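Extended Data, record Exopolysaccharide biosynthesis protein YbjH
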Amino acid sequence: MLKASAQSKATRGIACLLAGAAIVFGGGARAQDGSHSYSMFGTVGLIDMPTAESAPDAEFATTLTDFAHSSRGTLTFQMTPRLSGSFRYSRISRTPDAFRLGEEYALYDRSFDLRFRVLDETSTLPAVAIGLQDFVGTGVYSGEYVVATKSFGEKLKGTVGLGWGRFGSANGVTNPLGAINSAFETRPQRDYGKGGEVESSQWFRGDMGVFAGLSYQATDKLSFKVEYSSDDYSYERNRTAPLFDRVSPVNWGVSYEVFDGISLQAYSMYGSEIGVAISSALNPRKPEVFGGTETAPVPVLARDQAPSLDLGWEADPEIRRDIRTQTSDMMANEKMVLEAMKITGDTATIFIRTSRYNTNAQTIGRVARIATGTLPASVNTIVVVPIGNGQPLSKVVLRRQDLEDFESAPDGAWETYIRAQIKDAYGETEGAEYPDDAYPRFSWGLQPYSKASYFDPDNPIRIGVGAAATAIFNIRPGTFITGRYNQRLAGNLGASGRSDPSELPRVRTDVYKYHETDGGIDNLTLGHYFRPGPDLYGRFTLGYFETMYAGVSGELLWKPVDSRLALGVELNEVVQRDFDKGFGLRDYRTTTGHVSAYYAFNGGYLGQIDAGRYLAEDWGATFSLYREFDNGWLIGAYATLTDVPFETFGEGSFDKGIVLNVPLDYFTGKPVGGSVGGTIQPILRDGGARVVVPGRLYDTVREAQNPVLRNTWGRFWR
């Protein structure tokens, strides 16, 4: 039975899961019309105060601000048309001389916000939103609010709000919610503990404040703002050397959009200070380059029907070889690789290994076009099989006549999709003919690399840059050896030397010791991938998985091609590596493993639950929710709750993070392949830590199946 603290964590985990379900199944109300800007706290708002407006659905914004010896960096994502979330990292000086005296005279704080727009603006009623600021963290900025915003004509907007916590700290009045329950009249002292906990006992309690403001959109780029703030800034001012003097509750200033999506702001704040900010906003649904700039695909070659009955070529191996060679060459011209080919009767099956295109649908469409020009006229059915790690992931069955009929049709993509058959490809490679140079095959490369570490109080951003040598030796389909060696050439990543205390086995908190070595083996593994049965995918990996761990890993995944649900199980026997990142191993060994459930919700939302044993031998589960866009953008978050008490876990209380992945195609408009991004963890601790095993199955498999294929089929004819 779990301890009481673990039960509390489990309850919160269920609450998080229910909240995720609300996001996925909630109604897709339209976003608010009109312009918006970001406040000094990095959320849609006035200056310091929020508004009830929402950014356009899926907008992702970064805001950097500086005011009164405090600096903030905020990431805000409009998760749905109504719901937004923010992560903020702040530096608050403990004294006005903190920059001169050193980092020990500053507080580095991490905080999370949520805001939900309850009502849309109408011709007579304002938009209304409810928000939680700094609801997970130390609570330095914690506050709750209900705010209303109304447009008056096309240029003027007015905002009025009620706030608690920070928003009720200046000229607050007795909380009217006390009429319901007197407990609302007093705001409990926050139990900071190790930070990172959800302190719901404070929500909407204590004195209530009133804030208000106006914004005027003078031009498409220039806007003016004025507000009455209900934030007393008592944390920053109630000290021996106050950070600033709050002379007035009125703030005013300007915001100017210097480039599309990039704005600069300058404000007069509290009658004594100047605040400055810069914000940058991107929207995954609006690519930087519209339409794409890739080369046009080859046209579909319509057949002369007369020779379609001539099947004499089928028995000639030389003709089949010529067909395979011609198809391979034409695919290579478009940076696609032919894995194998099989022609039987009136059906040709083409196995594709890699492609520069981010979507399998576009790759399949281009391969099908090429096939119409290289296959004999008697071939009526073209089957395209995406290959991942040497194994067939699905097969897309296309009628050649449909390709000829719908290439130029206005709704050609949809007409082709409803006629295509997407099936499991188990056993499909039997009888396939591989190019002579397919296996064994060796390739290598040299590329730049960078690695960053965040949120170290001694230096919040540490970066290392250098060169990485990579190599892969493909022994046979599904079996290969791959490795990577990193050599750091510059940066301060190895200069931390910071050792955080831990009551658990040091499975992650010793990571700084691995950074002290400039060069070393990043990974070196033998991988074997296989299909044990229909709808089943398997993986076996042996070697040096990542910077800190080596071992043996096995995984099994069940994923039918048309199913939104997938189930998996993974078991790992791992040992910690030596700090020099060579071949040596340390004494710490453990067994970890998880049972996983994946579900693709409507709207591009992906949910994942992993339950099992972690590196520090703690038991629990990780809850993840992501939003993926058809162009490859992925933004999400996760939280891990285990049987490690919050106090034992240490700073942060439990493991959590933000995941971001952006395809390079988004910026270039060209199919260059690859992406940038990673996981942002507010704090790296030992509880809830998992080993990083390269080549896990789910992401590779799902990209070649529904619903991903269906959602991206619009690129079939691109």
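Summary. Residues 1-34 have pLDDT under 50 and may be disordered.
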